[in-house]
Amino acid sequence: xxxxxxxxxTLQPPHVELYIDETRVLDTAMAEPAPAFPELGFGVARxxxxxxxxxxxxxxxADKHVGCH
Length: 69
Prior knowledge:
- By secondary structure, the chain is an all-beta fold.
- Helix content is 0%, strand content 28%.
- Strand 2 (15-20) and strand 3 form a beta hairpin.
């Protein structure tokens, strides 16, 4: 089963939206001013189960919502 995850982060005003399969599951203003990020990392966490595999298909960095098409 493929799952699309998209994180939209706005610097001014500080705001974050999280989409899973094009459904917004988080939409909130940030409590602190947006920090400067010297680097960005991401990962996939999972419980080890026999026969279960995780693949990262595409990674996109954009200045607007890309969507799961």
